[in-house]
Automatic annotation (TrEMBL):
Alphabetical UniProt keywords: Hydrolase
UniProt-listed Pfam families: DLH
An annotated Gene Ontology molecular function: hydrolase activity
Alphabetical list of InterPro entries matching this protein: AB_hydrolase_fold, Dienelactn_hydro, Dienelactone_hydrolase-like
Domain Dienelactone hydrolase positions: 4-183
Protein name stated in the entry: Dienelactone hydrolase
Organism whose genome encodes this protein: Cellulomonas humilata
Amino acid sequence: MAEILLLHHVLGLTDGVRALADRFRAAGHTVHTPDLFEGRTFDSIPAGMAHEEDDLGWDEMTARTRRAAADLPSELVYMGISMGVVYSHLLVQSRPGALGAVFLESATSLDDFGDWPAGVPLQVHGHADDEFFGADGADNARALVAAAGAGDVFVYPGSTHLFVDDTLPTFDAGQTAEVVDRILAFAPLR
């Protein structure tokens, strides 16, 4: 079974993020869910973004991300939801030994952190018309998967963001079940 580091979205470490992690734990995986916001959660994406970008800033967020991974083995599957994708990508690039990565509801680009490490498969999931994913995110994801040489991009019908968090009104139970099934079939988790 795999060891997963799941980084939360911009609303914080919600019960919905914990519930998603529990789905992978139920399948036998070890899942770490560090709280990059140290207990704070937010009711809106703009409020969470203001906390991430203005209150904490890039240097503090990357330091918290690195601390979250510091005592974990290098052989991890990195998983991020929305904001967590950025920091998952950072760790894939900076910590040798990544087994794979899963990006949910966002996709970084090759320009963000340089070339994707060879041999590290990537799986990406997002809504086709999500303002934070959409066509640009899908194109970025396809470029990353091509650079990885292994992986898949799954684009689902819909326009909502954070559809995998069951505590939010944007939650889609059917699509989340499909996302979880596809992640569990992803080579690094089999």
